[in-house]
Amino acid sequence: MGETDGMSETGGVERRVRAWMRAEVAEGTDLALLVAVSAAPVEQEALQVLAGGVPHEVSETRDRFGSRLHLVHGLPLGEVEILYTADGVGQAPLPALRESDQVLHQRPSRYCEVDEFERIAAEVVGEREGADAAAAVVEWVHDHLDYVPGSSTISDSARTTYLARQGVCRDYAHLTATLLRAAGIPARCASVYAPGLTPMDFHLVVEALIGEDWQVLDATHLAPRSSMVRIATGQDAADTAFMTTLAGNVTLTGLQVTAVVDPGLPQESWTDRIPLR
């Protein structure tokens, strides 16, 4: 797919990522995949889709947020395996700032009911502004939610998470982004590979626009932010799902995600301002 010197980009630190999926699909199923490293340079990468053990055609495009979207059309009935690997993942350029970001990423979205959280956000943030306000939101979400695998579904939003006071990474991200937007801070979500994450999976974090810089925030505190690798960007999980069924029917039967960094995980200070690279 493309090659560059990822090791030189990271000063001798190497990131490697892998995603494997297995599914049973109906005849004629079409899929959209968001599993590829979005903007970081890589030494080597490959994406393969096998339908009944036979390679199937995959096309690549970009979505409205610039994420690499891979399309698979006309799958035959039966088992499908999807494997993505990227070795020597370097650091991506700093996220670009567009004039429209101030507007787009303060709006409500499918899983972020911003209008309902203005009073709550005001209580959480108080008189704080900018980075201090963002830190207050992250601290509040971290302290008020319990991370419970399997506790939520794809229909849960910031509203249901606030009431349940538990969830997984997508729920933490939706509530964090909603509170930030309600407090007047543009916020978006990003799916990432996260070395050090336990249990290992695709991970969803938040980026907040502080001044003119996007800073990555993660209220789960489950993995160091500086080693994360961006996959997809959007307003919420509706824009960042690793697999979307466009036509047909899919039953996921296997999923394994791996993300490692050598020579070792960086130290994390949750008060530091870190961009997602």
SSE order and pairing:
Elements: H1 6-9, E1 14-25, E2 29-33, E3 44-51, E4 54-55, E5 59-62, E6 68-75, E7 78-89, H2 101-104, H3 118-125, H4 130-144, E8 146-147, H5 158-164, E9 166-167, H6 169-182, E10 187-193, E11 203-210, E12 213-217, E13 229-234, E14 243-247, E15 250-262
Parallel strand pairs: 8-9
Antiparallel strand pairs: 1-7, 1-15, 2-6, 2-14, 3-4, 3-7, 5-6, 10-11, 10-13, 11-12
Helix pairs in contact: 4-6, 5-6
Considering the chains and any ligands shown, give keywords for the structure.
alpha+beta, Immunoglobulin-like, C8orf32 fold, 2 domains, five-stranded antiparallel β-sheet, 6 helices, 15 strands, disordered N terminus
The rough form would be described as globular
Give me the CATH fold name of the largest domain.
C8orf32 fold
Which band does the percent of strand residues land in?
A: 35-45%
Q: What sequence of helices (H) and strands (E) makes up the elements?
A: HEEEEEEEHHHEHEHEEEEEE
**Biggest sheet: strands side by side, in what order?**
4-3-7-1-15
Q: How many beta-strand elements? A: 15
Q: Give the number of domains.
A: 2
Which value, in Å, is the CA radius of gyration? 19 Å
> What is the multimeric organization of the chains shown?
single chain
Largest sheet: 5 strands, antiparallel
Question: Into which percent range does the helicity of residues fall?
Answer: 10-25%
Roughly how many Å apart are the termini?
19 Å
The appropriate CATH architecture of the largest domain is Roll
CATH class of the largest domain: Alpha Beta
Low-confidence stretches: 1-11
Nearest-integer average pLDDT: 94
Which secondary-structure class do the elements indicate?
Answer: alpha+beta
Number of helices: 6
